[in-house]
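1st attempt posting a full record on here, be nice pls
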Amino acid sequence: MIDLHDRHCLNHAEREAVARCPECKQFYCRECIAEHEDRVICASCLRKLRKARDDKKYSFASLTRAAAFCVSFATTWVVFYWIGKILLSIPVAFHDGTVWQTSFWNE
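the predicted structure (as tokens):
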């Protein structure tokens, strides 16, 4: 069995390997690895993990945006509907200018 110090980096053949990626099982030098969530992982596997996580996040985000649009559209429709109902309930005398001539106290 070959020890770690006899291995060389997959990306830099002249450099000695210092770690093995647990995802792809390849050996890498210090420049090619990164610590992520308390483990050492290579840059290409880290990109794959982040892309998978971002894809999940964006798919849920689009669903959230669509739901927010539907709720805001329904709320706006209800508000304008009630404003229209209020405007329609105003008596015609108000527009003629005769509503000011009536006294509410004398009725």
